[in-house]
Structure formats: structure tokens, C-alpha cells
Amino acid sequence: MPKRVDHEERRRLIAEALWRIASSRGLEGASLRDVAAEAGISLGQLQHYFSGKDEMLVFALEHISTLAEARIRDRLLALSGASTAPSPRTVLRECAAGMLPLDDESRTGLLVGIAYFVRALSDERMRRHAQEGQPKLRAFFADQFREAVARGEAGSGLDPELEAMLLIALTDGLTSSALLEVITPEEAMGLVDRHLERLFVR
User: Fold this and answer.
1) Quick one: pLDDT at residue 201?
2) Which domains does the chain have, with CATH numbers?
């Protein structure tokens, strides 16, 4: 009998090959043939799953985001336990940690994200797709800040929408500095902690 192919697993293997290329030499010069060779499959097999580089990049980015969300959920469960909801400050801290290049896996994921961002600047379809993510993240962060205010864990004068955007901007800036090795991952996380200390009541 012919061997059955797990199509989702094959797509994940292709995404991981793309990540490895991104982490070692960037994506702009990487062709579909390069990714196929890295994944150990033929170009024809790769094109069975992805018609072009942009489609492959979108899938890789979405898969990275799914993995990052799973890591954040696992950390929150480990910190709070199954019966206790984590505090807003803990949720925000762990989300920020998941957005920073604190290890090789997250670093590679962020490099793919940067490559996607560069292409989105000049590609209207990809830009619309990229624009969908930040409003959702900002709304989630704002909800966490609102809950903190309601629970008396943050000052009543705090502006949830503004602070949500500032936290996103902070993590974006720290990500750039950490990827360039201007600061260490530990220093980046320390600055996030310093920022949150100023917002939350001790």
C-alpha cells in the first residue's frame, strides 16, 4: 500500500524549513526551491501545498503565532494553577515575554515575522492580513488593564487603550534591540518588568 501522507505535518515541516532559512540567512533571497531542499522534499511537492512564497510565509507566520500562544498558555497555567485565574499583570507580563526573542525558537519566529512585515509594506494583500492582528492584541491588553483597574491592582487614572498600545510599542522596540544584540534577552525582560511596576499597585 502507498504510504499515507499527513498533510498538516508536511505543511509544518515546510514552515520549519522556512524558519531555519530565516534564522541563518534571511528570507528575501530564499526561493521555493531553497525551502524545498531544506525540507527534504521536491519543489513539486512543496508547490502542492503552497502556490507561492507569500502564501507559504503567511502559513509559517500563523503557525509561529499558534505555537507562541500555546507557550504563553502553558506558562500561565504553570504559574497560576488550574483552579486560579492569573492576575492581569501576570497575563500581560507573560504575553510580553512571548513577544520577545528570549530563546532560539522565539528569535527565529520573530525573524520570520520581520520578513513578513517587510513584504507587507509593499504588498496590499499581505498588509491587510498583517493589520488584522494588532487591533485584537491591543483590545486584549486593554481588557487586562481594565480588569486591573476594577480589581484595584492599577490606578483609576490609567488609560487602558493607551497603555495597551504603549506596551505593544515597548515590546516591539525591545525586540529590535535584542535581535541586534544591543541588549540581552534578560535586559529586555527586565525593562518590561520595570514598566509594569510603574503601572500596577504593589
Assistant:
1) 83
2) 61-199 (1.10.357.10)
